[in-house]
Amino acid sequence: MEAVTAAAAWVGLKAGTIIVAALMAALGFMLDSRRHSLMTAFLAILAGTSIAVLFTDPLIDYLHLSATWGNAIAGVLGISGRNLVVVINKISQNPGEIMRIWRGERDED
Asked: Does the pTM of the predicted model rise above 0.70?
């Protein structure tokens, strides 16, 4: 565990943020596990953890929250990170998709 903490500190990340993000990303996967294979499960957890690691501190700064909120924000981003990646991917493929999402229209696939 010390090696993970040291590696995280070396790149400027908090081990607690990574752990909470990964746990919540795994929870997010388990809530929707019927739709996942082993590979998509791994990618969903990786996406949730990555989003949380990348955006926790900037979101705390943007919302003017104290550092105490770090694990809570990491958890929320971890559990919803995969969905954020899917939405951004849809929007990048078809920028008009943002209007469908904004209006709450569902996919027909």
From this structure: no
